[in-house]
């Protein structure tokens, strides 16, 4: 007679996500099994159609689970929907030190009309300068909150408007590369 393996009973565990109001429940046999797990949340409904995808890492605190953001990405379908004929787009990618870690930032802007390469470069340089100075004074949690509430994008758009008016100003990607202890 073959011995049967003991199968642990699985249940739902609630995960606290202070950055969003979403209720998250994960299915597992123990809290330890969920420690370090990565969750992907679609924020499209809560942000009225702006397709953000938030990645959270689950951490175990004594007898509860909390989650911290590790990445935020604007979906490609949203970007394709926003680009229309007769416009140009400006994008960039760079690493910046925040107060508590190193983050990758990828801004994405769409101009209202076609513009010259010189104007696009000016927009790119001004964006990088503004974002670097802004991010250095913030923690990563503050950054994720500001991107979700559209605060960074609004400030950036007002700054870039002096160079050339934009149809769209977004941060396509915000990822934590490494954390300082």
What is the number of strand segments?
A: 9
**Discrete helix count:** 5
N to C succession of SSEs: EEHEEEHEEEHHHE
Number of domains: 2
What is the CA-atom radius of gyration, in angstroms?
Answer: 20 Å
Report the sheet-strand fraction.
35-45%
- The named CATH superfamily of the largest domain: Band 7 domain
Shape: elongated
What would the average pLDDT be, to the nearest integer? 87
Helical content class = 25-40%
Low-confidence stretches: none
Distance between the termini: 54 Å
CATH topology of the largest domain: Tetrahydropterin Synthase, Chain A
The main β sheet shows up as: 9 strands, mixed
CATH level-1 class of the largest domain: Alpha Beta
Query: What is the CATH architecture descriptor of the largest domain?
Result: 2-Layer Sandwich
How would you characterize the overall build of this protein?
With 181 residues, this protein is an alpha+beta fold. The chain has two domains: 11-73, no CATH class; 83-179, Band 7 domain (Tetrahydropterin Synthase, Chain A). It contains five helices and nine strands. The protein has helices at residues 31-34, 76-82, 117-135, 140-148, 151-160; strands spanning 11-16, 24-28, 38-42, 52-61, 64-74, 89-91, 94-98, 101-111, 166-179. Strands 1, 2, 3, 4, 5, 6, 7, 8 and 9 form a nine-stranded mixed β-sheet that branches. β1 and β2 (24-28) form a beta hairpin. The radius of gyration is 20 Å and the shape is elongated. The termini are far apart.
């Amino acid at each position: 007679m073959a011995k049967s393996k003991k199968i642990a009973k699985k249940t739902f565990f609630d995960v606290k996500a202070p950055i969003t109001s979403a209720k998250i429940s994960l299915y597992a046999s123990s809290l330890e099994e969920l420690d370090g797990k990565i969750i992907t949340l679609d924020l499209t409904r809560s942000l009225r159609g702006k397709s953000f995808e938030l990645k959270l890492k689950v951490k175990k605190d004594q007898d509860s689970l909390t989650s911290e953001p590790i990445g935020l990405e604007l979906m490609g379908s949203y970007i394709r929907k926003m680009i229309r004929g007769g416009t140009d787009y400006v994008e960039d990618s760079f690493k910046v030190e925040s107060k508590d870690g190193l983050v990758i930032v990828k801004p994405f802007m769409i101009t209202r009309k076609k513009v010259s390469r010189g104007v696009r470069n000016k927009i790119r340089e001004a964006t990088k300068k503004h974002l670097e100075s802004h991010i250095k004074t913030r923690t990563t949690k503050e950054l994720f909150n500001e991107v979700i509430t559209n605060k960074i994008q609004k400030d950036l758009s007002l700054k870039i408007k002096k160079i050339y008016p934009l149809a769209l100003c977004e941060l396509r990607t915000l990822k934590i590369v490494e954390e300082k202890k």
